[in-house]
Write a structure and sequence with these properties.
By secondary structure, this protein is α/β, with parallel strands linked by helices. It has helices spanning 2-22, 43-51, 57-64, 79-87, 140-157, 215-223, 299-313, 345-349, 352-370, 378-381, 389-392, 402-418; strands at residues 29-33, 54-55, 97-100, 109-110, 114-115, 129-131, 168-187, 193-199, 205-209, 231-235, 240-245, 253-256, 263-279, 293-294, 318-322, 374-376. Strands 6, 7, 10, 11, 13 and 14 form a six-stranded mixed sheet that branches. It has a five-stranded parallel sheet with strand order 2-1-3-15-16, with helices on both faces. A hairpin with a 5-residue loop joins strand 8 (193-199) and strand 9. Helix 2 (43-51) packs parallel to helix 12 (402-418) and helix 4 runs parallel beside helix 7 (299-313). The model is unreliable at 4-21 (pLDDT under 50).
Protein backbone atom coordinates (compact mmCIF):
# COMPACT_ATOMS: atom_id res chain seq x y z
CA UNK A 1 0.00 0.00 0.00
CA UNK A 2 2.86 2.35 0.90
CA UNK A 3 4.48 1.70 -2.48
CA UNK A 4 1.19 2.48 -4.26
CA UNK A 5 0.97 5.75 -2.32
CA UNK A 6 4.51 6.70 -3.36
CA UNK A 7 3.70 5.92 -7.02
CA UNK A 8 0.53 8.00 -6.77
CA UNK A 9 2.48 10.96 -5.33
CA UNK A 10 5.02 10.68 -8.15
CA UNK A 11 2.31 10.56 -10.80
CA UNK A 12 0.28 13.44 -9.37
CA UNK A 13 2.31 16.22 -11.07
CA UNK A 14 2.15 14.33 -14.37
CA UNK A 15 -1.61 13.97 -13.99
CA UNK A 16 -1.84 17.72 -13.43
CA UNK A 17 0.14 18.38 -16.59
CA UNK A 18 -2.05 15.98 -18.54
CA UNK A 19 -5.17 17.64 -17.20
CA UNK A 20 -3.81 21.05 -18.23
CA UNK A 21 -3.12 19.74 -21.72
CA UNK A 22 -6.72 18.57 -22.04
CA UNK A 23 -7.98 22.12 -21.48
CA UNK A 24 -5.34 23.70 -23.68
CA UNK A 25 -7.22 26.98 -24.21
CA UNK A 26 -8.77 27.35 -20.77
CA UNK A 27 -10.49 30.73 -20.37
CA UNK A 28 -9.64 32.03 -23.87
CA UNK A 29 -12.37 33.97 -25.66
CA UNK A 30 -13.03 32.21 -28.99
CA UNK A 31 -14.80 33.73 -32.04
CA UNK A 32 -15.48 32.63 -35.63
CA UNK A 33 -15.81 35.10 -38.49
CA UNK A 34 -17.57 32.70 -40.88
CA UNK A 35 -20.41 32.32 -43.34
CA UNK A 36 -23.01 29.56 -42.80
CA UNK A 37 -20.30 27.03 -41.89
CA UNK A 38 -20.10 28.86 -38.57
CA UNK A 39 -23.71 30.06 -38.30
CA UNK A 40 -25.86 27.69 -36.23
CA UNK A 41 -23.36 24.83 -36.43
CA UNK A 42 -22.31 22.68 -33.43
CA UNK A 43 -18.55 22.43 -33.94
CA UNK A 44 -17.59 25.68 -32.19
CA UNK A 45 -19.22 24.72 -28.91
CA UNK A 46 -17.78 21.23 -29.16
CA UNK A 47 -14.32 22.72 -29.66
CA UNK A 48 -14.88 25.09 -26.73
CA UNK A 49 -15.94 22.20 -24.49
CA UNK A 50 -12.88 20.17 -25.49
CA UNK A 51 -10.33 22.94 -25.05
CA UNK A 52 -11.83 24.99 -22.20
CA UNK A 53 -12.14 28.20 -24.19
CA UNK A 54 -15.16 30.52 -23.90
CA UNK A 55 -17.66 30.71 -26.75
CA UNK A 56 -20.74 32.94 -27.03
CA UNK A 57 -23.00 30.97 -29.39
CA UNK A 58 -25.99 33.29 -29.68
CA UNK A 59 -23.90 36.41 -30.16
CA UNK A 60 -21.33 34.84 -32.47
CA UNK A 61 -23.81 32.99 -34.66
CA UNK A 62 -26.22 35.88 -35.10
CA UNK A 63 -23.86 38.78 -35.67
CA UNK A 64 -20.30 37.52 -36.25
CA UNK A 65 -20.80 34.34 -38.30
CA UNK A 66 -23.60 34.93 -40.78
CA UNK A 67 -25.08 32.49 -43.30
CA UNK A 68 -25.25 33.45 -46.95
CA UNK A 69 -22.64 36.18 -46.63
CA UNK A 70 -19.36 36.82 -48.42
CA UNK A 71 -16.53 39.37 -48.33
CA UNK A 72 -17.92 41.75 -50.96
CA UNK A 73 -16.74 45.28 -50.10
CA UNK A 74 -20.18 46.91 -50.16
CA UNK A 75 -22.05 44.27 -48.13
CA UNK A 76 -22.50 45.59 -44.61
CA UNK A 77 -23.32 42.15 -43.16
CA UNK A 78 -20.40 40.57 -44.99
CA UNK A 79 -17.02 39.64 -43.54
CA UNK A 80 -15.78 43.23 -43.28
CA UNK A 81 -18.92 44.60 -41.65
CA UNK A 82 -19.08 41.77 -39.12
CA UNK A 83 -15.42 42.28 -38.25
CA UNK A 84 -16.42 45.78 -37.12
CA UNK A 85 -19.17 44.30 -34.93
CA UNK A 86 -16.63 41.94 -33.39
CA UNK A 87 -14.12 44.70 -32.66
CA UNK A 88 -16.91 46.70 -30.98
CA UNK A 89 -17.06 43.96 -28.32
CA UNK A 90 -13.40 44.21 -27.30
CA UNK A 91 -14.01 46.31 -24.19
CA UNK A 92 -16.78 44.07 -22.86
CA UNK A 93 -15.84 40.48 -23.82
CA UNK A 94 -12.56 38.59 -24.25
CA UNK A 95 -11.40 38.26 -27.86
CA UNK A 96 -8.34 36.03 -27.68
CA UNK A 97 -8.81 33.80 -30.75
CA UNK A 98 -10.47 34.56 -34.10
CA UNK A 99 -10.89 31.97 -36.85
CA UNK A 100 -11.74 33.29 -40.32
CA UNK A 101 -13.34 31.37 -43.18
CA UNK A 102 -15.65 32.14 -46.09
CA UNK A 103 -16.27 29.61 -48.85
CA UNK A 104 -18.90 31.90 -50.40
CA UNK A 105 -16.02 34.04 -51.65
CA UNK A 106 -15.87 31.54 -54.49
CA UNK A 107 -18.43 33.97 -55.99
CA UNK A 108 -15.41 36.12 -56.89
CA UNK A 109 -13.26 33.24 -58.12
CA UNK A 110 -12.68 31.87 -61.60
CA UNK A 111 -11.86 28.14 -61.68
CA UNK A 112 -8.97 28.73 -64.10
CA UNK A 113 -7.64 32.25 -63.46
CA UNK A 114 -8.44 32.57 -59.75
CA UNK A 115 -9.25 35.86 -58.03
CA UNK A 116 -8.92 39.12 -59.95
CA UNK A 117 -6.10 41.35 -58.75
CA UNK A 118 -3.02 40.40 -56.75
CA UNK A 119 -1.57 40.36 -53.27
CA UNK A 120 0.03 43.73 -54.03
CA UNK A 121 -3.38 45.44 -54.27
CA UNK A 122 -3.88 48.24 -51.76
CA UNK A 123 -5.72 47.23 -48.56
CA UNK A 124 -9.28 48.52 -48.29
CA UNK A 125 -11.47 48.34 -45.20
CA UNK A 126 -15.14 49.18 -45.12
CA UNK A 127 -16.23 52.49 -43.62
CA UNK A 128 -19.66 54.11 -43.69
CA UNK A 129 -22.16 53.84 -46.51
CA UNK A 130 -24.46 56.60 -47.74
CA UNK A 131 -27.17 56.65 -50.41
CA UNK A 132 -26.35 59.47 -52.82
CA UNK A 133 -29.44 59.39 -55.05
CA UNK A 134 -32.89 60.61 -54.04
CA UNK A 135 -34.78 57.71 -55.58
CA UNK A 136 -34.33 54.32 -57.23
CA UNK A 137 -32.91 54.57 -60.75
CA UNK A 138 -34.33 52.42 -63.53
CA UNK A 139 -31.21 50.31 -64.26
CA UNK A 140 -27.57 49.75 -63.36
CA UNK A 141 -26.54 51.69 -66.47
CA UNK A 142 -28.71 54.62 -65.38
CA UNK A 143 -27.25 54.49 -61.87
CA UNK A 144 -23.70 54.53 -63.21
CA UNK A 145 -24.52 57.42 -65.56
CA UNK A 146 -26.12 59.40 -62.72
CA UNK A 147 -23.03 58.83 -60.58
CA UNK A 148 -20.62 59.95 -63.30
CA UNK A 149 -22.65 63.09 -63.98
CA UNK A 150 -23.17 64.13 -60.36
CA UNK A 151 -20.17 62.72 -58.45
CA UNK A 152 -18.11 65.91 -58.25
CA UNK A 153 -21.11 67.86 -56.98
CA UNK A 154 -21.93 65.16 -54.43
CA UNK A 155 -18.35 65.03 -53.17
CA UNK A 156 -18.07 68.78 -52.74
CA UNK A 157 -21.39 68.90 -50.88
CA UNK A 158 -20.45 66.08 -48.48
CA UNK A 159 -20.01 67.39 -44.91
CA UNK A 160 -16.43 67.05 -43.66
CA UNK A 161 -17.61 64.78 -40.84
CA UNK A 162 -18.69 62.20 -43.45
CA UNK A 163 -15.38 62.16 -45.34
CA UNK A 164 -13.22 59.20 -44.30
CA UNK A 165 -11.23 56.29 -45.68
CA UNK A 166 -13.32 53.30 -46.69
CA UNK A 167 -16.54 55.24 -47.18
CA UNK A 168 -18.99 54.40 -49.95
CA UNK A 169 -21.60 56.19 -52.02
CA UNK A 170 -24.62 54.17 -53.18
CA UNK A 171 -26.84 54.69 -56.19
CA UNK A 172 -29.83 52.29 -55.95
CA UNK A 173 -31.38 50.81 -59.08
CA UNK A 174 -34.24 48.44 -59.85
CA UNK A 175 -33.88 44.86 -61.02
CA UNK A 176 -37.30 44.07 -62.53
CA UNK A 177 -36.39 40.38 -62.87
CA UNK A 178 -36.35 39.86 -59.10
CA UNK A 179 -38.98 40.39 -56.42
CA UNK A 180 -38.64 42.90 -53.59
CA UNK A 181 -40.66 44.32 -50.71
CA UNK A 182 -40.69 48.11 -50.47
CA UNK A 183 -41.16 49.45 -46.94
CA UNK A 184 -42.13 53.09 -46.70
CA UNK A 185 -41.85 54.97 -43.42
CA UNK A 186 -45.16 56.83 -43.08
CA UNK A 187 -44.51 58.16 -39.57
CA UNK A 188 -41.58 57.56 -37.21
CA UNK A 189 -41.89 56.35 -33.64
CA UNK A 190 -41.68 59.01 -30.94
CA UNK A 191 -41.14 56.67 -28.01
CA UNK A 192 -39.56 53.67 -29.74
CA UNK A 193 -40.20 50.07 -28.76
CA UNK A 194 -40.33 46.52 -30.04
CA UNK A 195 -41.16 45.77 -33.69
CA UNK A 196 -41.10 42.47 -35.56
CA UNK A 197 -40.29 41.65 -39.20
CA UNK A 198 -41.78 38.51 -40.73
CA UNK A 199 -39.49 37.71 -43.65
CA UNK A 200 -40.51 34.83 -45.93
CA UNK A 201 -39.79 31.49 -44.30
CA UNK A 202 -36.97 32.93 -42.19
CA UNK A 203 -37.35 33.24 -38.41
CA UNK A 204 -38.98 36.42 -37.20
CA UNK A 205 -36.60 39.34 -36.82
CA UNK A 206 -37.27 41.21 -33.58
CA UNK A 207 -35.83 44.72 -33.30
CA UNK A 208 -35.86 47.35 -30.57
CA UNK A 209 -36.51 50.66 -32.29
CA UNK A 210 -34.78 53.65 -30.64
CA UNK A 211 -36.94 56.59 -29.62
CA UNK A 212 -36.99 60.00 -31.25
CA UNK A 213 -35.63 59.22 -34.72
CA UNK A 214 -36.77 61.16 -37.79
CA UNK A 215 -38.20 59.51 -40.91
CA UNK A 216 -34.75 59.54 -42.57
CA UNK A 217 -33.01 58.17 -39.46
CA UNK A 218 -35.64 55.45 -39.11
CA UNK A 219 -35.24 54.42 -42.74
CA UNK A 220 -31.44 54.30 -42.48
CA UNK A 221 -31.58 52.39 -39.19
CA UNK A 222 -34.02 49.77 -40.49
CA UNK A 223 -32.10 49.36 -43.76
CA UNK A 224 -28.92 48.63 -41.79
CA UNK A 225 -30.37 45.64 -39.95
CA UNK A 226 -29.71 41.97 -40.76
CA UNK A 227 -32.87 40.17 -41.85
CA UNK A 228 -31.57 36.63 -42.13
CA UNK A 229 -29.31 34.55 -44.35
CA UNK A 230 -29.83 35.37 -48.02
CA UNK A 231 -31.76 38.60 -47.36
CA UNK A 232 -30.57 42.11 -48.17
CA UNK A 233 -31.96 45.57 -47.47
CA UNK A 234 -31.24 48.59 -49.67
CA UNK A 235 -31.90 52.22 -48.75
CA UNK A 236 -33.90 53.70 -51.65
CA UNK A 237 -32.85 57.27 -50.91
CA UNK A 238 -36.42 58.49 -50.32
CA UNK A 239 -38.55 57.55 -47.30
CA UNK A 240 -38.32 53.84 -48.05
CA UNK A 241 -36.04 50.85 -48.30
CA UNK A 242 -36.42 47.51 -50.08
CA UNK A 243 -35.90 44.02 -48.67
CA UNK A 244 -35.33 41.12 -51.05
CA UNK A 245 -34.03 37.57 -51.11
CA UNK A 246 -30.84 36.66 -52.97
CA UNK A 247 -32.83 34.79 -55.60
CA UNK A 248 -36.42 35.21 -56.68
CA UNK A 249 -38.70 33.19 -54.41
CA UNK A 250 -41.38 35.89 -54.24
CA UNK A 251 -40.95 35.95 -50.46
CA UNK A 252 -43.39 38.22 -48.67
CA UNK A 253 -42.50 40.59 -45.87
CA UNK A 254 -44.77 42.15 -43.30
CA UNK A 255 -44.03 44.26 -40.26
CA UNK A 256 -45.70 44.10 -36.86
CA UNK A 257 -45.04 47.52 -35.33
CA UNK A 258 -46.69 46.46 -32.04
CA UNK A 259 -47.02 49.38 -29.61
CA UNK A 260 -44.09 51.37 -31.00
CA UNK A 261 -46.17 53.94 -32.85
CA UNK A 262 -44.13 53.39 -36.03
CA UNK A 263 -46.25 53.53 -39.19
CA UNK A 264 -45.08 51.73 -42.32
CA UNK A 265 -46.54 50.64 -45.65
CA UNK A 266 -45.29 47.44 -47.31
CA UNK A 267 -45.79 46.96 -51.06
CA UNK A 268 -44.47 44.54 -53.67
CA UNK A 269 -41.99 45.83 -56.22
CA UNK A 270 -38.78 44.98 -58.01
CA UNK A 271 -35.65 44.03 -56.13
CA UNK A 272 -33.40 47.03 -55.56
CA UNK A 273 -29.65 46.64 -56.04
CA UNK A 274 -26.73 48.99 -55.54
CA UNK A 275 -24.22 50.64 -57.82
CA UNK A 276 -21.46 51.58 -55.37
CA UNK A 277 -18.36 53.73 -55.63
CA UNK A 278 -15.61 53.33 -53.04
CA UNK A 279 -13.29 55.94 -51.58
CA UNK A 280 -9.74 54.58 -51.61
CA UNK A 281 -7.93 57.59 -50.15
CA UNK A 282 -5.87 57.09 -47.01
CA UNK A 283 -7.62 59.95 -45.22
CA UNK A 284 -10.15 62.71 -45.89
CA UNK A 285 -7.67 64.99 -47.68
CA UNK A 286 -8.23 63.42 -51.09
CA UNK A 287 -12.02 63.20 -50.86
CA UNK A 288 -12.81 65.38 -53.89
CA UNK A 289 -10.18 63.83 -56.18
CA UNK A 290 -11.86 61.57 -58.71
CA UNK A 291 -8.77 59.33 -58.90
CA UNK A 292 -9.53 58.18 -55.34
CA UNK A 293 -12.93 56.80 -56.34
CA UNK A 294 -13.59 53.45 -58.00
CA UNK A 295 -16.45 51.04 -58.53
CA UNK A 296 -14.18 48.00 -58.17
CA UNK A 297 -12.37 46.77 -55.07
CA UNK A 298 -10.68 43.37 -55.33
CA UNK A 299 -11.09 40.52 -52.88
CA UNK A 300 -7.33 40.82 -52.29
CA UNK A 301 -7.86 44.41 -51.13
CA UNK A 302 -10.73 43.37 -48.86
CA UNK A 303 -8.73 40.57 -47.25
CA UNK A 304 -5.75 42.87 -46.70
CA UNK A 305 -7.96 45.60 -45.27
CA UNK A 306 -9.64 43.05 -42.99
CA UNK A 307 -6.31 41.79 -41.67
CA UNK A 308 -4.88 45.24 -41.04
CA UNK A 309 -8.09 46.34 -39.33
CA UNK A 310 -8.17 43.33 -37.00
CA UNK A 311 -4.46 43.48 -36.20
CA UNK A 312 -4.52 47.20 -35.45
CA UNK A 313 -7.64 47.02 -33.27
CA UNK A 314 -6.95 43.66 -31.63
CA UNK A 315 -3.15 43.55 -31.37
CA UNK A 316 -3.09 40.79 -28.74
CA UNK A 317 -5.58 38.51 -30.50
CA UNK A 318 -4.44 35.34 -32.28
CA UNK A 319 -5.91 35.27 -35.80
CA UNK A 320 -6.20 32.00 -37.74
CA UNK A 321 -7.40 31.22 -41.26
CA UNK A 322 -9.60 28.11 -41.11
CA UNK A 323 -9.38 25.79 -44.15
CA UNK A 324 -12.45 23.50 -44.02
CA UNK A 325 -13.13 20.28 -45.81
CA UNK A 326 -15.15 21.10 -48.92
CA UNK A 327 -17.21 18.51 -50.79
CA UNK A 328 -20.08 20.35 -52.45
CA UNK A 329 -20.89 18.20 -55.48
CA UNK A 330 -23.58 15.93 -56.90
CA UNK A 331 -22.99 12.44 -55.51
CA UNK A 332 -24.97 10.98 -58.43
CA UNK A 333 -23.21 12.85 -61.24
CA UNK A 334 -22.04 10.22 -63.77
CA UNK A 335 -18.80 12.09 -64.47
CA UNK A 336 -17.52 11.51 -60.91
CA UNK A 337 -18.89 7.99 -60.33
CA UNK A 338 -17.05 4.77 -61.08
CA UNK A 339 -18.92 1.61 -62.06
CA UNK A 340 -18.64 0.25 -58.51
CA UNK A 341 -20.29 3.38 -57.04
CA UNK A 342 -17.09 4.89 -55.66
CA UNK A 343 -15.94 8.38 -56.59
CA UNK A 344 -13.24 9.08 -59.14
CA UNK A 345 -10.80 11.40 -57.34
CA UNK A 346 -9.30 12.79 -60.53
CA UNK A 347 -12.75 13.58 -61.94
CA UNK A 348 -13.77 15.24 -58.65
CA UNK A 349 -10.69 17.44 -58.68
CA UNK A 350 -11.67 18.68 -62.13
CA UNK A 351 -15.17 19.80 -61.10
CA UNK A 352 -15.72 23.54 -61.31
CA UNK A 353 -16.57 24.01 -57.63
CA UNK A 354 -13.49 22.14 -56.47
CA UNK A 355 -11.24 24.12 -58.80
CA UNK A 356 -12.78 27.37 -57.51
CA UNK A 357 -12.19 26.27 -53.93
CA UNK A 358 -8.57 25.41 -54.68
CA UNK A 359 -8.05 28.86 -56.21
CA UNK A 360 -9.74 30.67 -53.33
CA UNK A 361 -7.98 28.72 -50.58
CA UNK A 362 -4.63 29.51 -52.23
CA UNK A 363 -5.48 33.23 -51.98
CA UNK A 364 -6.45 32.87 -48.32
CA UNK A 365 -3.22 31.03 -47.52
CA UNK A 366 -1.22 33.75 -49.25
CA UNK A 367 -2.98 36.42 -47.18
CA UNK A 368 -2.32 34.47 -43.99
CA UNK A 369 1.35 34.21 -44.86
CA UNK A 370 1.60 37.93 -45.68
CA UNK A 371 0.19 38.85 -42.25
CA UNK A 372 1.97 36.11 -40.26
CA UNK A 373 -1.26 34.32 -39.37
CA UNK A 374 -1.45 30.60 -38.74
CA UNK A 375 -3.48 28.37 -41.05
CA UNK A 376 -5.71 25.66 -39.60
CA UNK A 377 -5.78 22.82 -42.14
CA UNK A 378 -8.95 21.24 -40.81
CA UNK A 379 -9.79 19.69 -44.17
CA UNK A 380 -6.40 17.96 -44.19
CA UNK A 381 -6.65 16.49 -40.69
CA UNK A 382 -10.38 15.83 -40.17
CA UNK A 383 -10.34 12.44 -41.89
CA UNK A 384 -13.13 13.23 -44.36
CA UNK A 385 -12.34 12.11 -47.91
CA UNK A 386 -14.03 10.77 -51.03
CA UNK A 387 -14.07 7.22 -49.62
CA UNK A 388 -16.25 8.19 -46.65
CA UNK A 389 -17.77 11.51 -47.74
CA UNK A 390 -21.33 10.12 -47.72
CA UNK A 391 -20.99 9.58 -43.96
CA UNK A 392 -20.36 13.28 -43.37
CA UNK A 393 -22.02 15.23 -46.21
CA UNK A 394 -25.25 15.24 -48.18
CA UNK A 395 -25.17 15.47 -51.96
CA UNK A 396 -24.94 19.00 -53.41
CA UNK A 397 -24.61 20.61 -49.99
CA UNK A 398 -21.56 22.49 -48.63
CA UNK A 399 -22.84 22.00 -45.07
CA UNK A 400 -21.90 18.94 -43.06
CA UNK A 401 -23.94 16.43 -41.14
CA UNK A 402 -23.49 16.54 -37.36
CA UNK A 403 -20.96 13.72 -37.71
CA UNK A 404 -18.89 15.89 -40.03
CA UNK A 405 -18.88 18.87 -37.67
CA UNK A 406 -17.76 16.51 -34.89
CA UNK A 407 -14.78 15.56 -37.07
CA UNK A 408 -13.94 19.25 -37.45
CA UNK A 409 -13.91 19.88 -33.71
CA UNK A 410 -11.77 16.80 -33.08
CA UNK A 411 -9.30 17.84 -35.77
CA UNK A 412 -9.07 21.36 -34.38
CA UNK A 413 -8.37 20.04 -30.91
CA UNK A 414 -5.54 17.87 -32.22
CA UNK A 415 -4.14 20.74 -34.29
CA UNK A 416 -3.97 23.02 -31.25
CA UNK A 417 -2.74 20.28 -28.93
CA UNK A 418 0.13 19.33 -31.26
CA UNK A 419 0.77 22.81 -32.70
CA UNK A 420 0.15 21.45 -36.23
CA UNK A 421 -0.88 24.77 -37.75
CA UNK A 422 0.89 25.86 -40.90
Amino acid sequence: MKKLFVVWVMLLPLWGQLHAQEKILQGKGFWTLFDSLGDGTPWQQQFADQTGCIFYPKLNRRYISYGGSDSAPATMNGTLGRAKLLVALKDSLPIDIIMISNTNDMNFTDPDTGVEGSIDDEPWMQGSKRTAAKSVLESKEAAKAYCEKNLRKILKATPKAQRAAGNMLVFPYANPNRHGNRIEIIAPSKHGGEICFHVGRSPRVNLTLPAGMSVAQTREWLASKFYGAGWSAVDNGDNSFTISYYYDKNNKVWVDTKESGLQVAVTDGPRVEEYVVFYTGKDASGWTKSCNWTDKVSLWSCYKGLMEYLKSNLPNTEIYWFMPSYFNFDFNAPEVLRADGSFDEEAFEKTERNRKWMQLSAVQRAIAQRYNCRVLEVGKYCGINLKNVRDYYLSKDPHLKKEGYAQWSKALYEIFKAGKWE
